[in-house]
Amino acid sequence: MTSPVTVGLLHPGQMGAAVGHELAKAGVRVLWCPTGRSEASARRAEQAGLDAVPELGSLLEHSSVVISLCPPAAAEETADAVREAGFSGLFVEANAISPERARKIADDMAADGVRTVDGCVIGPPPGGSAAAHLYLSGEPGETAVAAELFAGTAVVQIQTEGSVGTASSLKMAYGSYQKAACALAGVAQALGRAHGVDEYLTAEARRLAKSPLATPDYLTGVAAKAWRWAPEMREVSQTLAAAGLPQEMAEAAATVFDLWEADKDGRELSLPQVLDRLRRD
Fold first, then answer.
1. pTM for the whole thing?
2. 1 lies in some domain
3. Where are the alpha helices (DSSP H) in the chain?
4. What range does the domain containing 35 cover?
């Protein structure tokens, strides 16, 4: 069945394209704007079954719901572009940003009559046997509209009882462990390699618990994504500070991820290459 709702997706990275593909499979028309996007984005969008429109204005004119899934640093810029273009529908802010930024974006949108739902995506890109959880917060009627889009898809929608900022708070709390743990594992493996004890370290980690430390090859994928994770950890830092909690670990994790920035989207990285990036000598 084809949904009467048309969704604008900004912008189809790996997660965004997978989310868009789930919507397209469910009969929702999903639009994206290739202006300023890379060939890789265009390839992902085509494979996901998204419809390209040449300009943002055209995308907004034909969309009743816009979903923003972009790197954290671009969240406000993306929201401002949507607002300033005169969009009047429902804006789903689904980026990994602090609750304070989510509320600011929602306030700015409301000043121009745009309704905002706060979203948080946790899990791998959905598809096949892999499911992602989409947490939604805000006005119940508006979160229900966003949730209904994903009915029957591999995106499991969970409506929280909180206001805008609640879903982003969850993303920050989850990321503060999950991504910091990857940073810790990278540093530990690099230290073990420097002293020739990395095989023993991995063996002990596997014996005691399953973790990124126990699967060091996973760190090659972490390095490829670190350019996106560093800004997210700085959002975590701001969230911790706002709650009166220590923020140094989040800042330290961001610093580690910065050292992998040159490996952006790398697909042929070896583990020794990844670990050697962390050495400063």
1. 0.88
2. no
3. 14-25, 39-48, 56-62, 75-84, 99-111, 140-149, 166-194, 198-208, 218-242, 248-258, 271-276
4. 6-164
As a whole number of angstroms, the distance between CA 118 and CA 163 comes to 8
113, 135, 164 — which closes off a domain?
164
- The one-letter amino acid at 54: P
In a domain, 281, yes or no: no
Q: Which two tokens stand for residue 192?
A: 């073990």
Assess contact for 80 and 53: CB atoms under 8 A: no
Count the domains in the chain: 2
Query: What secondary structure letter does DSSP report for 245?
Result: -
pLDDT tens for the chain, 281 residues long, are 456 899 999 988 999 999 999 999 999 999 999 998 889 899 999 999 999 999 999 999 999 999 999 999 999 999 999 999 999 999 999 999 999 999 999 999 999 999 999 999 999 999 988 999 999 999 999 999 999 999 999 999 999 999 999 999 999 999 999 999 999 999 999 999 999 999 999 999 999 887 888 999 989 999 999 999 999 999 999 999 998 988 998 999 999 999 999 999 887 889 999 999 999 87
Please report, for residues 17, 19, 64, 112, the alpha-carbon distance to residue 126 in angstroms, rounded to integers and kept in the order given.
9, 6, 23, 33
Range 34-69 burial, b when 16+ CB lie within 10 A, else e: beebeeebeebbeebebbebeebeebbbebebbbbb
Q: How far apart are CA 111 and CA 77, in angstroms?
A: 16
Residue type, 115: R
Q: Examine the fold and report which residue of 118, 141, 164 is the final residue of a domain before the chain moves on.
A: 164
Question: β-pairing, 29-32 with 65-68?
Answer: unpaired
Q: Domain of 44: which CATH number?
A: 3.40.50.720
50 and 136 together in one domain: yes
Domain CATH number, residue 257:
1.10.1040
